[in-house]
Amino acid sequence: MRPASSRQAFKARIRHALENNELRQSFRGAMDFLVKRRATAFADAAAFEQLRQQGASIRRRALSKLPDLLEQLESQCLAHGIQVHWAETAEEANQQVLKIAREQQAILVVKGKSMVSEEIGLNHALAFQGITCVESDMGEYIVQLAEETPSHIIMPAVHKGTEQIARLFHERIPATEYTEDVDQLIGIGRRILRDRFATADIGISGVNFAIAETGTLCLVENEGNGRMCTTVPPVHIAIAGIEKVIEKLADLPPLLSLLTRSATGQSITTYVNMIHGPRQENEKDGPREVHLILLDNGRSAMFADAELKETLACIRCGACMNHCPVYTRIGGHAYGSTYPGPIGQAIMPRLRGLDKYGELAQACSLNGACGEACPVNIPLPDLIRRVRVDQYEQDAQDRKPPIRRREAWLWRAWQYLCSHPRLYQRLTWIGARTQALLPKSLGPWTQTRTLPLPAASTLHEQMRRHQQQKDKSTSTRQGTP
Amino acid sequence: MTARHRILQRLRKATRPTSWPAVKPEAAGEASSAQLTEAFRSHLVAAQAEVVITTTTAWPAQVAQLALSRGWRRWLLSSQAEVTQASLACLQAVDEFKLAFFDRDTEELDFDLFTDIDVSLTSTKAAIADTGTLVLWPDATEPRQMSLVPPVHMAVIHASDLYPNLATLMARQAWAKGPLPTNLVLISGPSKTADIQQTLAYGAHGPKTLVVILLTDR
Questions:
Q1: CA-CA to A92 of 20 to 30 Å: which in A179, A335, B70, B89?
Q2: For residue A1, is pLDDT > 50?
Q3: Which of A230, A302, A235, A211 is nearest to A271 (CA)?
Q4: pLDDT score recorded for residue A3
Q5: Residue B184: which of A228, A268, A274 has the nearest Cβ?
Q6: Which positions 246-305 of A are in contact with B (Cβ < 8 Å)?
Q7: Mean pLDDT of A230-242
Q8: CA–CA separation, B77 vs B84, rounded Å?
Q9: Taking the model in full, what pTM does it have?
C-alpha cells in the first residue's frame, strides 16, 4: 500500500509551493517564456508534425535494436580509446566514478549539467569520500550554492528570482558585493568556475545522444561549461542512461533540431560538442582518459514493458513540464523527485517504486498538453493514467473486504444504470425534480468543492424543448411568403 | 556474470524485431551562394556574433585593426595553421600585440591559457547557413581549447565552405565513414546563459565575443 505519509508529504509540498507567491511568479514567467519560444521555433505546424514523426521513429528504431546498438557503441568507443563501463544500479555507477577518482587521487571534480548524475546522487557519493564536485552549469551552480536541487531539467534555478540569487552570491561567495545586475552575477560565476576548470582533476558530463555508428558522445549546451568539463581536466567521465543511444550519425540532425527547439526555442544551441576519444598521440590538449558509464538503473525493466518502453524514447527537452498547467503552478520541487512534471510522473514510479512515487500521477488534470508538446510522441497522458490504474489496483488489495465489496457494488450499479437508458432517464427526471431533497454535503469530498446540483430539467427534456421551438420557428417562417 | 552481460541479456529478452522508415536527410533548397552567405550572416548576428565580410587578401589587416581598436592585445595562435601564416606579418607589425603560440602540450605552455590571453585565431572546417554555425575540427595543429578558453575567439571561414544545413554537410563530407576528430565542435555564437530569470547574458564560460571572418572571394 502507498504509505499515507508519501501522499501527505506530497500534498504538503504542493500546499507549500502554492502559498509561495515569489515561486509561483518565477514559474509562471519562465514557463510562459519557454512555451512562447517553442511556439515561435515551430511556427509551421505541418513541418513540426513531420519532424516530430521523424524524431519519434528514430528513437523507436533505436530502441528496437537497443542491445545491438549498445554493443556497437561500445566497440566504436573502445576503438577510439574510450573506456566503457556498465552499471546496473546507481550505486554501481557511483562506485565506478569513485574508483576512477581514487586512481587519479582526485580531490576536485567539475561537472556539466547532467540529470542522470542527479538520478544516481553522484555529488553525495563523491562528497562522502571527501571529493568536492562543483556544478558548473550556471543554474546548477546557483542551486548547489543554495544547497537545493534543480527544479527544472533544463533551467535548474528557475525557481529563483534575480534578487534571491543576488543575495545568495553576496552571502555565500566571499568578498562579493550585492548586485542584481545579471551580467555582473554571471561574471562572478564565470570567474569562480574558470578557476575550478583550470584546476579540476576530473570532468564529469552527461550525454545527450550516443551515436552507435560512429561512437560519438554528443552534448549540447549554450554556456561552454560542458566543453570545459570535457576538454580541460585530465580525465573525462561521461555518464549515460542506456536509452541514450541512436543508430546513425544521420539520425542526429533531426533530433538536435527537435531537442533545442522544444527545450528553449533555439534552432541550435551555441555549442554542439561531439566527442570521439581522449587526446591522441600528437595532440596538445584534451583529456588523457575518457570513460563512458552506461547506466541501467531500472531502464531494462521498463524496456520489457511495451507501454513503459515508450518513456525511454525521451530526449529530456522539458517541453512536457513547460506545458503542464500543474507543473507551472507548483514547480519542480513539489514533486520531490529527480525528474519532475509529466515525464517524472510517468517514470519515477517505475524507477523508484509505485509506493514512493505513484502519488505523483494524481497531480494531473489529464488535459493532454504534455502529450501534444512531446517532440518524440511519447503518450504521456496514457502513461500517467496507467500509473493511476496500477496504483489503484495495488491499493485495492489493501482495502478492507467490506469497503471493497461496497465499492464493487457501487460500480456495478453505475454500470447497470448507464446501460439502461429508460431507467437512467427516469432517475435523472426524478433527480431534476427533487433537487431540494438531495444532501448538501458529502463529507470530505465537499469540503473543498461545491456540490454540483442537477439541472432543473434533464438534457433530454431540454433537447426536446429546443427541437420543438426550432420546428415552430421554421414552420412560422415557411408560412410567411 | 558481469553487469554488461546481465543488462544486455535483459534487453535481448525483450527485443522484438520491427522495421522503421529510414531517415531522409533534410532537403537542401536550391540556394545561391549569396543567399547562403546572407542566411549564415544573419543567424550569427542574431546570436550576437560579429561578422566581418572581407577577402583573402584584406582580412589580416582588418583583423589587426579590429583587435587594436578593441584592446585585444594578447594573441593565442597556432604556429602551423594556415590562418597564422596568412596573418602573422600583419600581427607582428603591431607593437602593442603580444603573440603566444599553442605549440606544445597544454600542461607545458609557458603562459596561462586562462588569464594571459585576450584573443585567439582559428580556422574553420565548414559552416552551416541554416543555423549560423561554424564547424571546428580541432587537431594537433589547432588544439580544442583555442576556441573555448580565450575571451575572444576569431574564426576564419571561406564562403565556399558554407553548406545549407547539418544533414547535407554530414552527407557531402561523408562524416559517418570517419575518421572523425577526437572533438568535433559546432559553434553558433558567443557563450551565453539565461539561467538567471531568463535574462540573456553573454560570456558564461566560453568566449564572450565571437568574431567570424567570412571570406567571400573564394
A1: A335
A2: no
A3: A230
A4: 56
A5: A274
A6: 248-254, 256, 264, 267-280, 282-286, 294, 296, 300-301, 303-304
A7: 98
A8: 7
A9: 0.91
pLDDT of residue A477: 67
Which chain A residues are within 8 Å of B23, Cβ to Cβ? Answer: 54, 58, 248, 250-251, 254
Asked if A86 and B2 come within 8 Å (Cβ–Cβ), the reply is yes
Is this prediction's ipTM beyond 0.90?
yes
Distance from the B137 Cα atom to the nearest Cα atom in chain A, whole angstroms: 10
CB of B51 within 8 A of CB of B44?
yes
3-state SS, chain B, equals CCHHHHHHHHHHHHCCCCCCCCCCCCCCCCCCHHHHHHHHHHHHHHCCCEEEEECCCCHHHHHHHHHHHHCCCEEEECCCCHHHHHHHHHHHCCCCCEEEECCCCHHHCCCCCCCCCCEEEEECCEEECCCCEEEECCCCCCCHHHHCCCCEEEEEEEHHHEECCHHHHHHHCCHHHCCCCCEEEEECCCCEECCCCCCCEECCCCCCEEEEEEECCC
Task: Tell me the C-alpha distance between A473 and B141, whole Å.
Answer: 88
Q: Over 80: is that where the pLDDT of A119 sits? A: yes
Smallest CA-to-CA distance from A236 within A139, A104, A140 is with A104
pLDDT of B27 reads: 67
B187 shares contact with chain A (CB less than 8 Å):
yes
A327-382 residue pLDDT tens? 999 999 999 999 999 999 999 998 888 989 999 999 999 999 999 999 999 999 99
